[in-house]
Task: inverse folding
C-alpha cells in the first residue's frame, strides 16, 4: 500500500495512475458489497474480439458503469457471462481476476479525454458535487447529458 | 448536481437531527466518521441515506457493529481511529442508523442549524491539527484508500516535493481517492490548508528522531498515528495553534531542497515518459497490488510486443495490427471463422477553418464494429444530418463515444483531419 502510494506519488504532476488507456473501472455495486471494483481491460479483449461482439451482440452500452451488470446476470450468461462461462473464457469462480481494482476507485474509463480535461488528475474531483455518489451513479462527469 | 445537493442536505440535516440520547454518537461521528460517511466516499453509506443504509440495517445491528469495529470493504477498523473505544464506535453506528431512519421530518431545522456550525468550526482558522483530528484522520490516520499516513515521511516526501500549492489543490479539489476537502464540504479553504500544513509538518517532523523522542513522553500515550503531534504543545500552553504554521514554515524550505533542477526542468515533464507506458497491472495505480489476482493479469507489453506501435492511447496501432494480421480478433464470440461485413466507403466532411477536411473511412470502422453500433443512435445515416464538433467529441459524444476512451485519442488530429483542402487565399493568389 505504502509502496504503491509512493510509486504513484513519484509521478505527481502527471496523473497519479497509469493503467492502460481504455481500462474501465466498474464500481456500481462492488464497494458497497465489500468487493474490489472491477477493472475491465479493453486492450486485452480487443486483441481477441472485435468491438462488435460485445457492443452489438452482447448488448454492452458504450458507457462505463451504464450496463448494470451484476453476478446473477453473469452467471445466467448475460454480459461477461456470455463468454466467461468456462467454455469460451474462464469462469466466474476467478473473482479476483476481474475484481482487482483498488477499493474506492470510482467508475471511469481510465485516461478518457473527458476525465483529463474536466478533472486533470483523476475522476472524483471532476465534480466535487458529484463525488458523493461517484460510486453509485456511473461516470458522473463522464457523460454529462450525452443524450444516449 | 442533484446528488451534491442531497449530500449537503444530508449533512446539514444530520446536524439538525440529534436525538438527545445519541449525542455521544453524534460527537464520535463528527470527529471521525464524517470524513467518509458525509460524502459517501469509498463506498461508505452516506449519513441519512435511507436507501444505502436500509440493506445494512436489515443485516442486524450486531453485524454493523462488527463491520465498524473490525472493518469491512473500504471501511477500516474503527473507521481508522484506533483511539476510539468500542462503545464510542457503537454509539456512532447507532447515531448513523438513527439518521438513516428518522431524517425526513427534520428538514425544517436546516437553515437554523447550519449557521452556528460553520463559525464554530472556522473559529480557529489555523488549527491544522484540530481539522486533521476531525476530518482527515479517518483516512490519513490509517492510510486507507491510498492516503499517505500521518508522519509517514516516505509516503509524504514525493508529494511534498510537488509543492505545497499542488497539495493544497489536491486537498481542496480532491485527487485519486481523496475527495474534495476530505469529503467534508463544511470546512473552509483555510482549514483545509491548515490541515495540509499540519500533515506536511508531521511528515517532515517525523524525520527528526531526536525531537520526536523527546516529545514522546510528554504526549499522551495512545497516539500511534501522530507521535510528534503535540511536540510544541508541551512547552507552550496553547495546543496546536502555533504548531501547524511554525512547523509548516520549517518544513517548506526543507522540502524544497531535495528537488534538483534536472528534475524540475525535465523535458516534457507533464507527458508520460516511455518508461511509464504499458505498465503491468501491479503498477497500474488502479489495480490493487494486494489482490492475488492482480499478479496473474497479463502485462500489456507482453501482448503489445509484436504489434505496430503508435504515439498515443495504448501506444498500439490497432488498425495496422489488424491489417497486418498481427492479431486475429473474433467477429463472433464462439466462431473463430466468422468474417466481418466490411463496407468500403469514405465520407468526407468539410470543416470550417484551416484544418484539413475529415475523411471518415467506413472500412476501418466496419472491420471492428457493426453498423448498429453507430447508426442510428450516434450518427444519423444521412449526409449533412449530423452536427459534429470537437467540443462534442471531447465531451464523449459522436466520435468521442470511442475516440478519447478506447479508440485513438483526439490528440491524433491528423488521423481524421487528413484531406488537405485548397485554401482560398493561397490558391487565389497562386492562380
Result:
Amino acid at each position: 500500500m505504502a509502496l504503491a502510494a509512493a510509486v504513484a506519488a513519484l509521478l505527481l504532476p502527471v496523473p497519479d495512475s497509469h493503467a492502460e488507456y481504455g481500462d474501465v473501472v466498474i464500481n456500481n455495486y462492488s464497494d458497497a458489497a465489500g468487493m474490489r471494483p472491477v477493472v475491465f481491460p479493453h486492450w486485452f479483449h480487443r486483441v481477441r474480439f472485435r468491438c462488435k461482439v460485445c457492443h452489438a451482440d452482447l448488448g454492452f452500452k458504450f458507457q462505463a458503469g451504464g450496463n448494470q451488470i451484476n453476478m446473477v446476470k453473469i452467471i445466467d450468461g448475460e454480459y461477461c457471462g456470455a463468454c466467461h462461462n468456462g467454455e469460451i473464457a474462464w469462469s466466474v469462480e476467478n473473482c479476483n481476476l476481474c475484481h482487482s481494482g483498488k477499493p474506492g476507485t470510482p467508475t471511469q474509463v481510465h485516461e478518457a479525454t473527458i476525465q483529463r480535461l474536466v478533472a486533470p488528475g483523476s475522476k472524483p474531483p471532476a465534480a466535487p458535487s458529484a463525488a458523493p455518489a461517484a460510486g453509485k451513479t456511473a461516470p458522473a462527469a463522464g457523460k454529462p447529458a450525452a443524450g444516449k | 448536481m442533484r446528488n451534491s445537493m442531497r449530500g449537503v442536505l444530508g449533512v446539514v440535516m444530520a446536524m439538525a437531527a440529534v436525538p438527545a440520547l445519541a449525542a455521544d454518537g453524534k460527537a464520535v461521528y463528527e470527529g471521525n466518521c464524517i470524513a467518509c460517511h458525509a460524502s459517501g466516499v469509498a463506498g461508505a453509506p452516506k449519513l441519512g441515506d435511507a436507501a444505502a443504509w436500509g440493506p445494512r440495517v436489515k443485516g442486524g445491528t450486531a453485524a454493523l457493529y462488527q463491520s465498524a469495529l473490525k472493518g469491512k470493504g473500504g471501511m477500516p477498523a474503527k473507521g481508522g481511529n484506533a483511539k476510539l473505544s468500542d462503545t464510542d464506535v457503537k454509539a456512532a453506528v447507532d447515531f448513523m442508523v438513527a439518521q438513516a431512519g428518522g431524517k425526513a421530518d427534520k428538514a425544517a431545522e436546516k437553515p437554523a442549524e447550519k449557521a452556528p456550525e460553520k463559525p464554530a468550526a472556522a473559529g480557529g482558522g489555523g488549527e491544522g491539527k484540530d481539522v486533521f483530528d476531525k476530518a482527515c484522520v479517518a483516512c490519513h490516520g490509517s492510510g486507507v484508500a491510498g492516503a499517505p499516513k500521518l508522519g509517514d515521511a516516505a509516503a509524504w516526501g514525493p508529494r511534498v516535493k510537488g509543492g505545497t500549492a499542488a497539495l493544497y489543490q489536491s486537498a481542496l479539489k480532491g485527487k485519486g481517492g481523496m475527495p474534495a476537502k476530505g469529503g467534508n464540504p463544511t470546512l473552509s479553504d483555510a482549514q483545509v490548508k491548515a490541515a495540509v500544513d499540519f500533515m506536511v509538518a508531521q511528515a517532515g517532523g517525523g524525520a527528526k528522531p531526536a525531537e520526536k523522542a523527546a516529545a514522546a513522553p510528554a504526549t499522551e500515550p495512545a497516539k500511534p498515528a501522530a507521535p510528534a503531534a503535540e511536540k510544541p504543545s508541551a512547552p507552550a500552553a496553547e495546543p496546536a495553534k502555533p504548531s501547524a504554521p511554525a512547523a509548516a514554515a520549517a518544513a517548506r524550505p526543507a522540502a524544497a531542497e531535495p528537488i534538483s533542477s534536472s528534475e524540475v526542468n525535465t523535458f516534457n515533464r507533464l507527458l508520460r515518459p516511455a518508461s511509464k507506458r504499458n505498465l503491468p497491472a501491479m503498477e497500474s495505480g488502479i489495480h490493487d497490488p494486494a489482490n492475488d489476482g492482480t499478479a496473474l493479469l497479463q502485462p500489456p507489453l507482453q501482448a503489445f510486443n509484436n504489434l505496430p506501435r503508435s504515439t498515443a492511447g495504448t501506444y498500439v496501432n490497432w488498425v495496422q495490427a489488424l491489417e497486418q494480421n498481427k492479431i486475429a480478433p473474433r467477429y463472433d464470440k464462439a466462431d473463430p471463422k466468422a468474417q466481418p461485413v466490411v463496407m468500403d466507403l469514405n465520407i468526407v466532411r468539410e470543416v470550417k477553418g484551416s484544418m484539413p477536411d475529415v475523411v471518415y473511412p467506413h472500412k476501418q470502422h466496419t472491420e471492428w464494429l457493426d453498423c448498429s453500433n453507430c447508426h442510428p443512435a450516434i450518427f444519423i445515416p444521412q449526409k449533412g444530418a449530423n452536427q459534429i464538433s470537437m467540443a462534442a467529441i471531447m465531451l464523449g459524444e459522436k466520435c468521442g463515444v470511442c475516440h478519447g476512451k478506447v479508440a485513438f485519442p483526439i490528440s491524433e488530429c491528423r488521423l481524421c483531419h487528413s484531406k488537405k483542402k485548397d485554401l482560398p487565399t493561397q490558391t487565389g493568389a497562386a492562380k
Remarks:
- The helical segments of chain A are 2-10, 42-48, 51-57, 71-75, 95-98, 113-118.
- The beta strands of chain A are 24-26, 38-40, 108-109.
- Chain A touches chain B through 93 residues (CB under 8 Å).
